[in-house]
Description:
Layout: H1 2-18, E1 33-40, H2 47-62, E2 71-78, E3 82-86, H3 94-102, H4 113-124, E4 137-143, H5 152-160, E5 163-170, H6 175-181, H7 186-189, E6 190-193, H8 203-211, H9 215-218, E7 226-230, E8 233-237, E9 242-244, E10 251-253, E11 257-259, E12 266-268, E13 282-286, E14 289-293, E15 298-300, E16 307-309, E17 323-327, E18 330-334, E19 339-341, E20 348-350, E21 364-368, E22 371-375, E23 380-382, E24 389-391, E25 405-409, E26 412-416, E27 421-423, E28 430-432, E29 446-450, E30 453-457, E31 462-464, E32 471-473, E33 487-491, E34 494-498, E35 503-505, E36 512-514, H10 517-520, E37 528-532, E38 535-539, E39 545-546, E40 553-554, E41 562-568, H11 575-590, E42 600-606, E43 610-614, H12 622-630, H13 641-652, E44 668-674, H14 683-691, E45 694-701, H15 706-712, H16 717-720, E46 721-724, H17 730-736, H18 758-780
Parallel strand pairs: 1-2, 1-4, 4-5, 5-6, 41-42, 41-44, 44-45, 45-46
Antiparallel strand pairs: 2-3, 7-8, 9-10, 11-12, 13-14, 15-16, 17-18, 19-20, 21-22, 23-24, 25-26, 27-28, 29-30, 31-32, 33-34, 35-36, 37-38, 39-40, 42-43
Helix pairs in contact: 2-3, 4-5, 11-12, 11-17, 13-14
Domain VWFA: 34-210, 562-737
GO molecular function: calcium ion binding
Keywords: Coiled coil, Disulfide bond, EGF-like domain, Glycoprotein, Repeat, Secreted, Signal
Amino acid sequence: MKMRLVFLLLTLVVLVAARPKAGPKQKCKSGPVDLVFLIDSSRSVRPHEFETMRKFMIDILSTLDIGLNATRVGVVQYSSQVRTEFSLKAHAKLDTMVKGINEIIPLAQGTMTGLAIKFVMDTAFVAEEGDRPKVPNVVVIVTDGRPQDRVAEVAIEAREKGIEIFAVGVARADMASLRAMASPPFEDHVFLVESFDLIHQFGLQFQDKLCGVDLCVESKHGCEQICESSPGSFHCLCLPGYSLNEDGKTCAAIDLIQLNDDKKSCTMIDFCSFGNHSCDHECVSVLNGYHCRCQEGHRLLEDGKTCQAIDLCAEGKHDCEQICISAPGVFSCDCNTGYTLHDDKKACTPIELCAERKHDCEQICISAPGVFSCDCNAGYTLNDDKKACTPIDLCAEGKHDCEQICISAPGVFTCDCNTGYTLNDDKKACTSIDLCAEGKHDCEQICISAPGVFTCDCNAGYTLNDDKKACTPIDLCAEGKHDCEQICMSAPGVFSCDCNKGFKLNKDKKTCTDMDMCNTVKHGCEHQCGNTPGSFYCICPEGQLLQEDGKSCGTCKSANIDLVLLIDGSKSVRPQNFELVKKFVNQVVDSLDVSEHGTRVGFVQYSSRVRTEFPLNMYHTAAEIKAAVMKVDYMEKGTMTGLALKHMLENSFSESEGARPLDRNIPRIGLVFTDGRSQDDITEFAKKAKEAGITMYAVGVGKAVEDELREIASEPTEKHFYYTTDFSAISTIAENLKLNICPAESQGEIEVKDPCACESLVEFQQASMSSLEQLTQKHIL
């Protein structure tokens, strides 16, 4: 009896201690918390479902102690992008927070949950947004679908930073993804409901997890002896020696002790020994009866007898990213096909066959977990083997708009043109290249164009040369293809007839009749005209000679010559003296019998270079020559007399510049006028000129070197060499220089004075004094 009394006393003590505490209903006071709702607003969340999500958040907030020093709440929504609706520091009161939730507009795009967790970790839980140091950070993620990005790694990073994550999945949510996001233990942080309409059903359970509400303490549970709390609920238990009645709340005492066979001592009843416990695994006897116990990895079912293997995979109590393989009470992780298990034996990484080069694509490898497909670069098409690529030949397929030539590159083309054509600005059409029109030919007369090429032809009366470019007039006269009696005058491809002087052309335009020239023309004979067939001649009285004009009579006969004047135009001559030189030249011209068939005159000026001012065949009267001389520009610079002699020999006395053929015995005379020493050698070409039959005259002024002048002049030197001390005296030389008059009149020389001789110095001094005196008089006047 004493033992029974002690047991009863203990039972009363326990019963009193187990009764619920009375107290007023109050909000969750779990201490300061920084809470962020991360809500999925992807397009799969329908409008009415989003409204249910609003109510879910508002219902939870209504149970929390909201305040800047209590629970702070922020809201972030996400889809393909992430947006903060309000931060932790935005609201200090529930009513403004509810207003902010009701104003949220869904984004309605994809489901980038990993991006959203990263955003919350880096942006929401910072001091600038209201995060408090040493205050727990809690995230409640509400989503209805599988994430479109990777969440495991970023969730691990967030948890390592001390953020506690609750994952609430609705309808289509993926349990493996929820577990990859949530903090352990999963039974306290992962929730999954079938629809948004049912989300409010676990609101109280969620609040318990968040706030740690004990319904045995906070509510009237009605348990007679012991109240045992569970998340969002409770159930009643009885003290040892009592059993729970059918009402689930009251308890009834049981007889715990039996009398032994000695009828003296007592033994606690071993209820398991009765053989009627029906336990699946083990029966454990206790003071007030027995209970069943299951082996490790199993749990006792509600009937208290049956044991069921604990399937942690099915219960979601695992952290496998993809596949959970269950064994009683334990699990292992695996990955889907195309993925490989991480070293942590939980997360999975896609097998990148492309990156690992485990493929046979020719160009582009497109990876999917554990598999790959091939593609081709732009301009290529995939072959039937789905691996190799063939360039797309738009030209061969006729998929181009080139007028002539299509040049193919993979997937593209460019246009070109055939030889002789050029590509237009539109890069498609071609235009023939007309070399004739562009002047890109060397035809002398007619250019006949074909695309990019040409041929030459000639005008009527011309024939094409062997070079197929130049044309030669068809000279019917020279070819004897005419019937003129005397003179055939040719024009390209045609001819006309004429008659010799003294004959006239008959009406047939071919034959000629002799004329009596002395009686029919103004013959101009000074004395007497003598007639010859087709011509006439003049006759002079006895003792007189017919002159070069063939008409006048005189005591001597002038000579026809070809005269080239080599005039020094070097810098030392000076402009004013060069004008005196030009007058000197014209004095010489005045003494000549200038005509086309008489004397011809050419003018060459030289300094450091040589310039033909006019050749022998340019002018045929003295007046024309004198006018041309006065227009000559002074060259200046050096004195290259040797170069000038070379030019005279090779060019000036050529037939192309008017020199008459040597077989006509027309004298060739060269006159060199210079005022200084030559800067090049004169010996070679002075000698060659004289050897070529040219009679050379040398006229020197001032600083001209006598030796050079004598080397230039022909023999006898005294008749071909002239010198004066200054330019004012050159007119005297011109008067004495008789180049084409009768030999009796040609003195050939004047006194050559040594400029350094005493009498020369005296003359120079007297001339200088006279000039100075005249200059003084001009200034005085």
